[in-house]
Amino acid sequence: MSSSVAPPMVIVPAPLDALVIPAALDGRDGRNRATGRPAQIAATNDLTAIRAWLARFSDTKTTFENYRKEAERLLLWSIVQLGKPLSSLTHEDLLVYQHFLSDPQPSAVWVAGCGRKHPRSDARWRPFYGPLAAASQRQAMVILNVMFAWLVEAGYLAGNPLSLSRQRRRKAPPRITRYLEPELWQEVKTFIELMPRETARERFHHGRVRWLFTLLYLGGLRITEVSANTMGQFFSRRDATGRDRWWLEVTGKGDRERLVPATAEMMAELRRYRLAHGLSALPVTGEDTPLVLPVGATRKPLTRAALHRIVKDVFLGAASSLRTGAESNEERASRLEQASTHWLRHSAGSHMADLQMDLRLVRDNLGHNSLTTTSQYLHMDDDRRHRETEEKHRMDWH
């Protein structure tokens, strides 16, 4: 009699909160499990150990989501691709994984269609939206090293398989590359200006797109900052010459606050946007109106994913227009298709620098931490920062 062989387990990648791992792969008997010393956490398998690590970051949404994403990707790759528990991974496995990040294959299993971000509850959700750039690969491995080190310290793992890596940090590129050159930026603005406005819904969408792009570019805001802040955070104050200047107080990354110059051009766009929706021309302090309005009467702020989708659709539409125009340009169209919301922030910083704005002012506009040695001299420069931003950083809508 021939003995029957059990078919291999088929596991479909799923988010951590919905993932069910067979006992043979859950890490309870992982080869790298710590033995002979008391554990500091109650976790008995890899999934609960990862959740214990992530719980440390639950009060910082962006950090939590970034760390969960990297832990989730590695865990899924380990059990789906290698068929072994995360707590059995070796140093060599992690080298293979880093190579995998540059081209997650098979793409049907790992990559969301058309690079779209689907909700975690959606059956179309996938761990990746495409290959990771070199900088993103390094960031992923840094986060995973932090996770492994903590699991060792907590007494769950015997050793950190990434501790043997001593990767030499590559020199940063001389300039930001993920941004829109002025000519390509003009193509995007032209596409927005030519968007249809025949119906009330089309007029609503056009106005929202125009205002959102104004905020992201003139303000250099992150997409999370657009979602998390309100119109009530605009305020005016009189400068040294007696002129009233408007500012937007933004709570951004790491709950740090900064003042963004609300230039005359930005305030004109804000007035236009608010009046189109029956609001007063200018916001009042403490007003809870979202920076970007949702459809309908609700005042619930749009999510980061919804804002990202609006921006991405504009880039894709502008790329399509480039391809079908009188002078089709495949290279520029392809570049626009790669663009994301954060490209607008990079574009803002690059364009301000190109116009020879003081880099210290650019730093403060974007809320960066660089050039810290000069920060003690900048307390008196807010008026100049506002003036130079207004003069040199513009939308110039037609």
TrEMBL record:
<keyword id="KW-0132">Cell division</keyword>
<dbReference type="InterPro" id="IPR044068">
    <property type="entry name" value="CB"/>
</dbReference>
<feature type="domain" description="Core-binding (CB)">
    <location>
        <begin position="44"/>
        <end position="152"/>
    </location>
</feature>
<dbReference type="InterPro" id="IPR050090">
    <property type="entry name" value="Tyrosine_recombinase_XerCD"/>
</dbReference>
<keyword id="KW-0229">DNA integration</keyword>
<keyword id="KW-0233">DNA recombination</keyword>
<dbReference type="InterPro" id="IPR011010">
    <property type="entry name" value="DNA_brk_join_enz"/>
</dbReference>
<keyword id="KW-0963">Cytoplasm</keyword>
<protein>
    <submittedName>
        <fullName>Tyrosine-type recombinase/integrase</fullName>
    </submittedName>
</protein>
<keyword id="KW-0238">DNA-binding</keyword>
<feature type="domain" description="Tyr recombinase">
    <location>
        <begin position="175"/>
        <end position="391"/>
    </location>
</feature>
<dbReference type="InterPro" id="IPR013762">
    <property type="entry name" value="Integrase-like_cat_sf"/>
</dbReference>
<dbReference type="Pfam" id="PF00589">
    <property type="entry name" value="Phage_integrase"/>
</dbReference>
<keyword id="KW-0159">Chromosome partition</keyword>
<dbReference type="InterPro" id="IPR002104">
    <property type="entry name" value="Integrase_catalytic"/>
</dbReference>
<keyword id="KW-0131">Cell cycle</keyword>
<dbReference type="InterPro" id="IPR010998">
    <property type="entry name" value="Integrase_recombinase_N"/>
</dbReference>
